[in-house]
Amino acid sequence: MLRFAATRLLRLVVIIFLVSVGTFFVVHLLPGDPTVAILGPNDTPSARAELLKQLGLNKGLLAQYGTWISNVVHGNLGASFLTKQTVANALGEAVPIDLELIVFSQVIAFVIAVPLAMVAALRPNRAFDQSATVTTFGLYGLPAFVIGPLLVLGLAVHGHVFPATGWTRLSQGLGSNLRSAFLPSLVLGLGSIAIYYRLLRADMISTLQEDFVVMARSKGLSTPYLMVRHVLRPSSLTLAAGAGINIGTLFTGAFVVEALFSLPGVAYILVQSIYSDDYLMVQGMALVAAVAFVVIIQLAEVVQLVLDPRIRRA
Amino acid sequence: MPEGPPAALGAPPVGETGEGQALLAAATRRRSTRRPLGVVFWICASWVALMAALAVFASLLHLTSPTAQNYSAVQVGPGVHHLFGTDDLGRDLLSRVIFGSRVSLVVGFAPIAVGLLVGGSLGLWAAFRGKAADAVVSAVSFTVLAYPALLAIIVIQAFWLPRALWKLVIIFSVIASALLFVVVRAAALSYVNREFVLAAKAMGARTHRILLRELLPNVVPATAAFALIGVATAIILEGSLAYLGLSVSLPTPSLGNLINEGTGQNLLQSDPWITLWPALYIFLLLIALNLMADRLRAAFDVGEGRL
Asked: Which terminal Cβ of chain B has fewer Cβ within 10 Å, N or C?
């Protein structure tokens, strides 16, 4: 077990290192000159040379990477040279929005997917199961930028139930915060519904064949009690593992949803910084998002291995 | 699809004869009686082909130019002169959707084709060779895939100016190659130690013959199903990029930036058609691709876990 943990940890470190190298070199090897954006009209050769020196961009690429990564390891992600806001500060404002979106979207996805899967698994391949399967399949194929505008059209523009765009921070009241978060979270969670429904339905169908279920039924337990207390737990192993990996991918899914609803999250700042050639901001944001993705995926794999020893042997 | 895989579940894989021409001929005959893919698959395939044909021959269709602005017909609903209506600048929506689908289709299919060619052949080779060759290529593809795709594309698109379609295709191709390498390698690994491969080796077959004639036919179903999902995913990624304003530059229409245009400036309220048509178009395209992949998997019993 210790050996297992050690190799996993080593692998994680190696991947994070590669991710940091990738982020840095993509930003630095591609054409594009940050000094143009900073200097603006004051662009003279001497001013430019001075600025390059000040930003440390006159050194070799490897030296620049060394400086950057040692700063990052010491917790200093740098600061925007336009607004002087630190990357850490910007992240502190943006990340909670994405986290709330992800958590809320998963709550919605589970609340819808779990009961659907339970009812469908009781009578597989009958009308309810088939219509639920087809509907979730359709939802799964619908990207956020397609279903989002449609939901906004129906529920915000015509229905006036939810605000179409914008974000109300949690500090301004839970009710209005949840109201502004509902539509974005729903859009983000729709794809997850299909995944969770499929995983749980398949496992429940096989659990329902087990002897202990026959036993429980013959004791006279009611079907809802049986499903919730006896069938749900042993059927949720694949679901737990699948959810972990899915949540990792939601991080970038949230980017589109942010743009869709004009929410000031990570992607919003990232795109803003891209348009203003704010490379340190882009680099810092991209690094943190990529590392978060890698860590979540790796954690999900570990959870999967712990829950299901069959994979460990393979 | 070329070279069908085994007829029913449990039938020996293609090429598992190795003893003589007669048996090989029998195997070939068995191959032709494989389970059909079903009506749904072919309806979807024709639908995708129709969409592709519309996009390819768009300039021959006598459509209004997708960028021509006509201020005497602004925000007209669907009708005789403009089948899909016009947008806030009087541009024909039908034409914009069809020309816009070019970007989506190119970004969907071209990188997957490159991926199949590069990633696919590397996957076969690495699975067959094993050892160092396998370790090196696997490590490279693993590194590419460790990075969240959308984020990588955003960062590269941000600094590789000016934005152009061919650059998108290159970036997508690298990711698709890594992904298809993993799929083909995994599928091929379950065959490399089988008797028919051993027999081919014993008969002195060259590497390329083993890869192309023994391994390739067996990995086709899994790879085809995954490639179709890949096409759908690439189309979604391009749409998401367009939505963030980081795909092809305006005024070139793409389905993603059309939807984006339609949701801005209260247009969703005053003229929902601008959003609805491209949304419907991309939805039907994606559904068709996903259904095709689903039918393929069902017909050839490809485990979902492997994808």
From this structure: N
